[in-house]
Specification:
about 350 residues; alpha/beta; Rossmann fold; 2 domains; five-stranded parallel beta sheet; 14 helices; 11 strands; about 35% helix; globular
């Protein structure tokens, strides 16, 4: 049996599909599993032990996009898949699923696209207090696969050996050793509605270092705000004076390297973005800063025995569609104080590592 999975776009959404990949392998142990993904999120699944093949779909615009998609569709169709599952539901993923020619095609009931599937399942409302993994698991029900749990089927991103070597060398060059407590803080998010203020991150870094001189704080940021980590680190170093070395410059990390970096850390801190869910694939304690999203929908999907603390504000305007801030001051994030995050981080650092 040959099975095609299609999940485009964002890193966190692709991470959320990895429990389903494991479940499909369990249900169909001899199947050939292929995953179609766009370049930004490809590292999430490229080393997945349950997949036989990963197809990376280039991103393009205009006529070039049309040529790319036709070429991808022809490649996929030649493989004669028996089953195709659209884990995304967007126009491009729906079309590729249909173009696969698979006799069985599963997707969400979405106006204008349902005709491309042979089996259609209802799609939960975007703001429903239901986890994204559970929402996607609905697509496996036509196959008789019941929803899993974080304890049995956590998100999964195996460590890449090349990334492991590179991260080890960079930490050593930055003066970070096993004697230090490594704190990894991701300071950006692709969506401005999910970004904690830079001044708050700066206060947090200073507080962490002043509390314990053995700590080394490494800041990372994504392509949507590549300079954010540098700006916050520079400001924190200026305030720390002779302790500035506790905030080393280790450079930028790609997705595979970030997963390795977090696995070696004592704690990970960050907002609701792709790196948070990459961190969930490790056993490292997590402090997650949630703005407009609900914990029920975005909490790291991993074994409940691994430490996670969600820091958020209980506000009547949450959750929101993240297009217009109703109060106008982004209070779901701006009202979260550095002191509160620092307290959560201390609890994470004191938590036992299983």
């Amino acid at each position: 049996m040959k099975i095609l999975l299609v999940r485009l776009r964002l890193v966190g959404d692709v991470v959320f599909t990895t429990p389903l990949v494991r479940a499909l392998r369990r249900q169909f142990p001899d199947a050939h599993l292929t995953y179609a993904v766009e370049p930004a999120a490809a590292p999430v699944v490229q080393d997945n032990p349950h997949l036989n093949e990963v197809i990376v779909l280039p991103q393009a615009r205009g006529l070039q996009r049309l040529r790319v998609d036709i070429a991808a569709a022809l490649r996929i169709r030649r493989q004669r898949f028996d089953l195709a599952i659209d884990l995304h539901g967007g126009p491009r993923s729906a079309w590729l699923t249909w173009a696969s020619g698979a006799p069985t095609r599963i997707g969400y009931a979405i106006a204008g696209r349902s005709w491309m599937y042979t089996a259609v399942v209802p799609r939960a409302a975007d703001l429903a207090p239901r986890h994204s993994v559970t929402n996607q698991w609905d697509l496996l029900r036509p196959l008789g696969i019941e929803p899993g749990t974080p304890a049995i089927d956590p998100v999964e991103i195996p460590e890449n050996a090349v990334a492991g070597t590179a991260v080890g060398a960079r930490l050593e060059a930055a003066g970070v050793t096993a004697a230090h407590a490594l704190v990894v803080i991701h300071v950006s998010a692709g969506n401005a509605f999910r970004r904690w203020p830079p001044a708050a991150f700066e206060d947090l870094v200073v507080g962490l270092v002043q509390h314990d001189g053995r700590r080394r704080v490494v800041l990372t940021s994504g392509p949507s705000d590549a300079d954010a980590a540098r700006r916050i680190a520079d400001a924190a170093r200026a305030r720390l004076g002779d302790r500035a070395h506790a905030v080393p410059d280790a450079g930028e990390f790609d997705l595979a390297e970030l997963r390795t970096l977090v696995a070696r850390a004592s704690v990970y801190i960050g907002g609701d973005s792709g790196p948070l869910h990459v961190a969930a694939a490790t056993r490292t304690p997590i402090v997650a800063l949630l703005g407009p999203t609900l914990p029920e929908r975005s909490k790291p999907w991993r074994d409940p025995g691994w430490f996670v603390e969600m820091v958020d504000m209980q506000l009547p305007c949450r959750p929101c569609n993240q297009r217009v801030c109703e109060p106008g001051d982004f209070r779901c994030l701006t009202w979260i104080t550095p002191e509160r995050v620092l307290e959560a981080t201390e609890r994470a650092l004191a938590a036992p590592r299983l």
